[in-house]
């Protein structure tokens, strides 16, 4: 994809792609491009305030090393409703065996670095050093969380994301053993349901997410849900441990 450079913002300002202007805040998500789907703005920074403001509006950063920061709000949005997860027969068998230990927020940095490792089909990982630092900073501030799947003392899978109000914004997951990230997802949803969360944002569609029960949601409906549920207060006990043995 060719990135527009004409008039590109400098410093912490944002270049509004569709409107060809420079501003200090984000444009309305309805002005995002259709091709590439959801590209909204370029530039800015990954400071905590900027990131949290973006997520509350249905916007997220996604770019590769060597590119400027790109901000997206695709339409439709890929989400998990709290009851939409599909658990296959084979996954149910694994869950019944209770051979894994699941923890929350016990190894956030290990999880995010595992998610950033180059993969065979994606050598240009989108988790740049700048993004790693930004999400670790959010974790230290209490805005990000991870779920870890352990086989004995070995971390074999997990996921992480941003938690704002009663919406969880999923960022990435990894597996070193078959279905390990799916097991982490099952336990995350179980926890979020206990806290009456509204949904999990998955950002962009993939066949893998669809196979697990993720569904497309019109962007405007998604944004309306964020306006209501991101403002709700939740008392978290992320540090609890669920031992599946």
Description of the molecule:
The chain has 245 residues and is an alpha+beta fold. 29% of the residues lie in helices and 26% in strands. It is built from seven helices and 13 strands. Strands 12-6-11-10-9-8-7-13 form an eight-stranded mixed sheet, sandwiched between helices. It has a five-stranded antiparallel sheet with strand order 2-1-3-5-4, covered by helices on one side. A hairpin with a 4-residue loop joins strand 1 and strand 2. Mean pLDDT is 89; it is low at 1-7.
Helix content: 25-40%
Structural class: alpha+beta
Spatially, the strands of the biggest sheet line up as: 12-6-11-10-9-8-7-13
Weakly predicted, low-confidence segments:
1-7
Supply the number of helical segments.
7
Keywords:
2 domains; 29% helix; disordered N terminus; Alpha-Beta Plaits; Aminopeptidase; eight-stranded mixed beta sheet; alpha+beta
Q: What would you say about this model in short?
A:
By secondary structure, this protein is α+β, with helices and mostly antiparallel strands.
Draw up the topology in text.
Layout: E1 14-16, E2 21-23, E3 39-43, H1 48-56, E4 60-61, E5 70-72, E6 77-81, H2 89-97, E7 101-104, H3 108-116, H4 129-140, E8 144-151, E9 154-164, E10 167-175, H5 180-194, E11 199-203, H6 207-211, E12 215-217, H7 219-229, E13 241-243
Parallel strand pairs: 10-11
Antiparallel strand pairs: 1-2, 1-3, 3-5, 4-5, 6-11, 6-12, 7-8, 7-13, 8-9, 9-10
Helix pairs in contact: 3-4
